[in-house]
């Protein structure tokens, strides 16, 4: 990779002069706290309801920048605004969290998943480091315990399918648990991080990585078997590449662990081959295990976040192995994403493109897209490249 300085400059400038300023200018609610994410192309407010995931995610992002880039008071203040909104309104009486709130904080929707808790955990951990508050660290640890209890002890979360008819499990909780444990270790010296990371990595490798098919499955049977039906044959290349990135990050943390590097690169290789669109470029959203037709009509769209995760994972793979094919893939996905997603007029990125790269929606955010995957990619890759120089 001969263009490290140029890439580093692009990521740094995009983070500090485009993405974060866009959200701080247009997203912050000065009256009730927290961040709006349903924004139009120019940052105008489309819906005042507040998704819960972005509150934790943006709080984590801003506090992490405060901790690692520069201790800007503006970043910490906005992080604490998001975290404070979660503290006041995000938790139901049973201790679980909501998914969607009104502007003022009244509950609108609650989901069976525990990802609101996961992203709040990240926020508390990073904000603990940014403020020195031990109660935030304790809350982060409690939410980690809650997440693992809900996801890994049967019966605590209602299953997606009838478990007597078609028992199954998904990769999502495992990969998110890895990221949570890593974040707690980095911010509050969480002593149990490696045990949880190893447990989740082992299960992903044993049950979700399928050498016979050269894929990383999204859903498998409890013992790791293929469930040959439409929903469970569905592959999500971006999700699998994100999981590979967490594993490669762990290898880097451990000084270049050979087994973790090999596993992460294998997962990346398999899902790049499945996900990269040879005709138009970019990472496709869904693929079928057997290359059969897919019932989800958005399967061939290009969402912003799989491109972000592929940019991170390919750069990590190159740093750990020095193999030029990873540098070439990084250049491919970086160039394609930066050609098609950024909005040159109003800033930030569009989230949803058609297969050919044309814009499908001019929304800059909603209940799913907010200030997380893009700024995290920009921050992480900038920091990684700075370490290489």
Overview of the structural elements:
The chain has 389 residues and is mainly alpha-helical. The chain has a domain at 165-340: Glycosyltransferase (Alpha/alpha barrel). Helix content is 56%, strand content 7%. The protein has helices at residues 4-26, 52-68, 73-89, 115-131, 134-152, 172-188, 193-208, 230-233, 237-253, 258-275, 304-321, 324-340, 373-388, and strands at residues 50-51, 100-101, 107-109, 169-170, 209-210, 215-216, 219-220, 234-235, 287-288, 302-303, 352-353, 359-361.
Overall, the morphology is globular
Number of strands: 12
- State the end-to-end distance: 12 Å
* Structural class label: mainly alpha
Mean pLDDT: 97
Low-confidence stretches: none
CATH C-level label of the domain at 165-340:
Mainly Alpha
Task: Work out the helix count.
Answer: 13
Strand content: 5-15%
What is the name of the CATH architecture of the domain at 165-340? Alpha/alpha barrel
Compressed to H and E, one letter per element, the order equals HEHHEEHHEHHEEEHEHHEEHHEEH
CATH topology of the domain at 165-340: Glycosyltransferase
**Radius of gyration using CA atoms only:** 20 Å
Helix content: 55-70%
Strand order, largest beta sheet: 1-2-3
Main pleated-sheet profile: 3 strands, antiparallel
Quick recap of the structure?
The protein contains 13 helices and twelve strands. It has helices spanning 4-26, 52-68, 73-89, 115-131, 134-152, 172-188, 193-208, 230-233, 237-253, 258-275, 304-321, 324-340, 373-388, and strands at residues 50-51, 100-101, 107-109, 169-170, 209-210, 215-216, 219-220, 234-235, 287-288, 302-303, 352-353, 359-361.
